[in-house]
Amino acid sequence: MKILVINCGSSSLKFQLINMEDESVICKGAIERIGLKINGDEDNVIYKVNGEQYISTKEIPTHTDAFNTVKDLLTSGEHKVIDSLDEVDAIGHRFVQGGDKYTKSTLINDKVVADVEELSPLAPLHNPANLQGYQACLSVVGPDVPQVAVFDTAFHSTMPPMAYMYALPYEYYEKFGIRRYGFHGTSHKFVSQRCAEFMGDKIDKFKIITCHLGNGSSIAAVKYGKVIDTSMGFTPVDGFMMGTRSGGVDPSVVTFLQEKLDLSPKQIEEILNKQSGVSAISGGYSDDRDVTANQNAGDERAILAHEMQAYQIAKYIGSYVAAMNGVDAIVFTGGIGENGFWLRSKVCSYLGYLGVSINESVNQKTVKGAEAELTNPNDKVRVFILATNEELMIARDTKEIVDSL
C-alpha cells in the first residue's frame, strides 16, 4: 500500500509518499509561496528522492495547482516514482483542530468538511488551509481515492475535564468551546509509542512525559497510553515560552497593555504570538541556533532566554510527574529537543529528585534524527532523545482506517 501524506498551510503544501509495506519514504517535498508572487529566481518547489534534492521555481496560484505540481513530480520526468496517481491507495491529511467532535482520525466526507469549517474559528490559520489541501486533492484524484483527516487535537482528547476546563463562566465552554485542546498530538502520539518500544513493553504499561520542543513547543503527560494533560491550551500560544510565543502569562497583563497602549485584540494577539517568547528576551533571535551561538559568546540576554526556557520546561515536567503520580520516561523530540544538547542538560539538571542523571557524552554527541537513551536502562526514570515522525503517524492512521473499509 502506498499512502500520500499532505500537510497544507495557507501558502504551502508539504508531502510524503510512503510505502506502508516497510514504512519507507519513497519521496517527499514541499511547494511553497502558493498564491504569492515569486521574486526573481526564488526556489519554491522542493523534491527529494533517492537521497537527492531537486529544486525549481514555479508560479503556483492555488492549492490545486500545487497538488498538480506534486502529481507531475511523482508521475513524470526522470525522477518519477510512480506511473500514475492510481498507484496511490489513500491520502492522509494533517488537520489541526478537531474540537470535541473528532477524538480520532476519520475518513473525510461532506459532514467532516462542514464540521471542520465550523471549527475554523478555533484554528483560523490552519483549518481553512487544511481544507484547501483536501479540496485540491479531491479535484485532481476524484472521490474514489480515500482521504483521511488526522487531527492534531485528537490524541489529547483523553484529557479529563479537570485538566481541560478553564475556571471561567461555564457558559463560555458550552457556547464557544473554550477549553484546553492541546496541539502537536500526532508527534506526542508517535514518540510516546516509540518510547514504549524502546522500553520493551506496551505503552499502556508506562507513564511518559513527551517534550516536543521547536519554534512551537508543548509537553504532554501520557499515562498508560492516554494523555491526561498537555501544556498548549485553547490555542498554541499557551504553555511555556517558545520561539516567538509568550506561553502562559497573567491574563491581567493583556488587559493592562490594552489599556496602557490602546491596543486592539488583534494587536495583542500579534504581540503574544509573534513578538514574544525567546525572541523577545534574547533580543530578536527566535532560531535556537542563533540563541545558542549568542549564549556561547556570552550574551546575557541569550543566556537569560535559555535559562527561562529550561526552567519553565522543568516546571511543567515536575507538575506532570505529580499529575501522573510518578513517571517512567521523559522524551525530548522536535528540532530543539533533538538538537539542543544544552537545553536538555539544563532541564535534566532540575530533575535530580527523580534520580535523573544523564550521560553528557551521549547527550552532546547526539544529532538530529538520531535516537539515543541519555540514562541507563536500569534507572528508575529513563530519558530519551527520539526523532518524531508525524508524517508516518498520519500514514499509519490512514492505513488503519482504509484497511477497515
Layout of strands and helices, then pairs:
Elements: E1 2-8, E2 12-19, E3 24-32, E4 45-49, E5 52-56, H1 63-75, E6 90-95, E7 106-107, H2 110-118, H3 127-141, E8 147-151, H4 161-164, H5 170-176, H6 185-199, E9 207-212, E10 218-223, E11 226-230, H7 251-261, H8 265-274, H9 277-282, H10 288-296, H11 300-324, E12 329-333, H12 334-339, H13 341-349, H14 360-365, E13 372-373, E14 382-385, H15 390-403
Parallel strand pairs: 1-6, 6-8, 9-12, 12-14
Antiparallel strand pairs: 1-2, 2-3, 3-4, 4-5, 7-8, 9-10, 10-11, 13-14
Helix pairs in contact: 1-3, 6-15, 10-11, 11-13
Notable characteristics:
39% helix; 19% strand; single chain; eight-stranded mixed beta sheet; 405 residues; alpha/beta
> In angstroms, what separates the terminal alpha carbons?
14 Å
Radius of gyration: 22 Å
Mean pLDDT, to the nearest integer, reads: 95
Major β-sheet annotation: 8 strands, mixed
Strand arrangement within the widest β-sheet reads 5-4-3-2-1-6-8-7
Structural class: alpha/beta
Q: Strand fraction band? A: 15-25%
- Low-pLDDT segments: none
Please report the number of helical segments.
Answer: 15
Total beta strand runs = 14
- What would the principal axes of the Cα set say about the shape? globular
Provide the succession of SSEs. EEEEEHEEHHEHHHEEEHHHHHEHHHEEH
| Proportion of helical residues | 25-40%
